[in-house]
Amino acid sequence: LGRRYASQKPFYVTTPIFYVNASPHMGHLYSMLLCDVRIRWQKLNAKNNTTFFTTGTDEHGLKIQNAAEKQGVDPKQFVDSVSQNFHVLSDKMDIQYDRFIRTTDPDHMSAVQYVWKVFKEKGLIYEGSHEGWYCVSDETFYPEAQLEQVERDGKRIMISRESKNEVVYQKETNYFFKLARFQDQLIKFLEENPDFIAPKAKYEELLRELKDTKLSDLSISRPSSRLNWGIEVPDDPSQKIYVWLDALFNYVVSSGFPGKFPLLADGTYEVPTEVPWPATHVIGKDIIRFHCIYWPIFLMGLGLQLPKQVVVHLHWLCDGFKMSKSLGNVIDPILTQDLYGQDALRFFLTEFSNIESDCNFVEESFHNSRDHIIGTYANLITRIGGAAFNIEESVQWAKEGKYVDINSIIESHYDPAKATQICTCRSELTSLLDNIYNSMDERMVQFDYKPAIREWWGVLEKANLFVQLSEPWTFKKLIASNPENSTSYEILRHYSIYLALEASRIASILIQPVIPELASKLLDRLNVSESKRSAAQCHLGGDFTYGAGANSKTHKLPIQRIVPTEKLYVPVK
Ligand code: ME8
C-alpha cells in the first residue's frame, strides 16, 4: 500500500526566487526555462505523477531597501512594481508555474517567523556579536581570505574575489544559528547521497570544501536600525531576519508548510504523500553554498526532509563576456521576446544550454537557430502538407497495412544503388522514431537538454533526407505515363509522405516542452487530436487518426523569417 501511495508523490521543481532590485535578465529566464521544460517533459508522459512548479521573487533585504531609497519610493511599492516585471516575463515566455511566491506574501512571512520560534525552542539560536566584511549585493559576509583590494572610481575598496562586488566592514549584535554543529551530519548525508548535487563536479567540489574547512555559525539577523525592510525577529523588534533564511523557506511555504506537514511526537515533521516535497531545486552556480550547506542544515535543524536534488547551472555570457550593466552587454529577455517571439528564444536557450559549462549568447547563433527551426522543422511539415498530397489517405493506408511490402516495392522501382540508399535511410528513420522518446527521456530527466535536442534534430534531418531521396512529387507524372504500375507507384508516393508525416508528428510532440506555441500550431496543422499529443503516441504508428482535412489548410508557416534590424545588445569591443 505504501508503494502505491509513494508513486503519487508530486514531482516538484523550483527556480530560485529572484531579487527585485533590478529588471529580469537572461539568467533569470534561463532558470525559469530549465524548470518549465523539465515540468512539461514530465507531463508529456501521462503515467508520471502530478507535478508542482514554483518561482517567485525575493523581496526583503538591504539591497532592495537601498534600491527603493535610491528611487525615493516606499519599499513595498517598489517591490510590487518590480515583481510585476517577472510576471510579465514569465507570461510572455509561457512559463507554467503553479505558484509565484513572494517573500512579502503573508503566509510566507508568518511561516518564517514560525521557523524562527522552532529554532529558538530547539536551542539552535543564540545571541552574539559579529564583525566582518558584509557584501550588500550578495547579502552575505565573506571571510577575509576571499577578499581583495581594488581601485574603483578613484577609491580603494575591498571586494569579493568571486562576485567582484564591494564589501564593507560591519560590527553589530545579532542572532546566530548553530550551523557548525551540523557539519558532520551534512557530510554524512552528502556521502550517502552522491546524486544530491548535479553535475558531479559541483558535488565533489562542495564535499571537498566541507571536509577541508570548518563551518562557522551563521549570523541570521540584522539590526533593524540598519535593515528596516525585512521580517521581524519574533519577540525582538530591534532585529530583522537575515534575508537568506527568509528566502530559502519559500520552497516549503509553497508546499503548504507548516500547515500541511503534521508535527510528530519526536519533533520532526511528516510529509504526507500528496504534499509536494521534497523538491528538485534549479539554481545558478553563485548560490550553491546557500542551497547545499545552509538550506539542508536549516532543514535538519527543523526536522524536515531534505530536498531531493540541487541542479546547478552555469551562467550565460554574452559574446564570451560576463553580462554586466557597465559593459552594456546585458540582453533584455522581454525585448528579445517582443522582437523574435517566445519560440525562438526558448529554443535557443534550451538548444545551447549546457549545465556543465558557461553558455555563450551570440546574436548570430540566435538568428541561425531560429532559421534552422523554420528551414528544417516547420518547412518539412508545410511541404508534405501541401495540396498535392493527401495526408489523411497516407495515414489510413498505414492503418490498412498497405505498406507491408514496401522494401520490395522500393527495390523493384529504383536502380539497386538508389534502392539500397532509400531502404537504409528508411530503416534508420523508423528505428530512430521508435527509440527517440526513450533516448531523449534519459537526458531530459537530468536537465541535460543539449544532447536531447541534438537527437531530435537527427530525426528531422533523416526525415528530410528520406523525402529528398524518395522524391514523392515525381510520382504523379510516373503514374500517368505508366498506368500498369500505378498501384505500386501510389503506395510509394503515400509511403514517402507517411514516413515524413510520422517524423513530423513525433518530433512535434517531443518538442512541445521546449517550444509549446510553435509545436502546437504544427500539430494543429496536421490535425493531430489534443488527446494524442503525449509520450504514448511517440512511436511509428502511434496514431492513425490524424490528417483529416489537413491538406486544405493554409500553407503559411506559423513562424516567419525576420530580418534583424535591431541589435539585442552592444557588443563589447
Ligand atoms: O540569487 N546566467 O537572486 P538573483 C544564468 N534571490 N543565470 C544567472 C545569470 C547568468 N548570467 N546571472 C544570474 C538570488 N543568474 C536570490 C536567490 S533563492 C532562495 C534566492 C542566476 O536574482 C543566479 O545564479 O540574484 C541565480 O540562480 C538566479 O539567476 C537568481 O539570481
Account of the protein in words:
The structure is a single chain. With 573 residues, this protein is α/β, with parallel strands linked by helices. The protein has helices at residues 2-6, 26-44, 62-71, 75-92, 106-121, 183-192, 200-212, 243-248, 250-253, 288-302, 333-340, 342-351, 363-384, 391-399, 406-413, 416-444, 449-470, 475-481, 486-511, 516-525, and strands at 11-14, 18-19, 51-58, 99-102, 125-135, 140-142, 147-152, 155-160, 166-177, 197-198, 218-219, 221-223, 232-233, 236-241, 279-284, 309-313, 316-318, 321-322, 359-361. Strands 1, 2, 3, 4, 10, 15 and 16 form a seven-stranded parallel beta sheet that branches. Strands 5, 6, 7, 8, 9 and 11 form a six-stranded antiparallel beta sheet that branches. Helix 16 packs antiparallel against helix 17 (449-470). The longest helix is centred in the C-terminal third of the chain and has 29 residues, at 416-444. It is elongated, with a radius of gyration of 28 Å. The chain starts with a helix and ends in a 48-residue tail after the last helix. The model is unreliable at 1-6 (pLDDT under 50). Bound molecules: ligand ME8. The site of ligand ME8 has 19 residues, from strand 2, helix 2, helix 8 and strand 15.
What is the helix fraction of residues, given as a range?
40-55%
Calculate Rg over CA atoms: 28 Å
Backbone structural class: alpha/beta
Overall 3D geometry? elongated
Low-confidence stretches: 1-6
Number of alpha- plus pi-helical segments? 20
Beta fraction of the residues? 15-25%
Mean pLDDT: 93
What profile does the largest beta sheet have? 7 strands, parallel
Ligand kinds: ligand ME8
The rounded distance between the terminal residues' Cα atoms is 64 Å
Number of E-type strands: 19
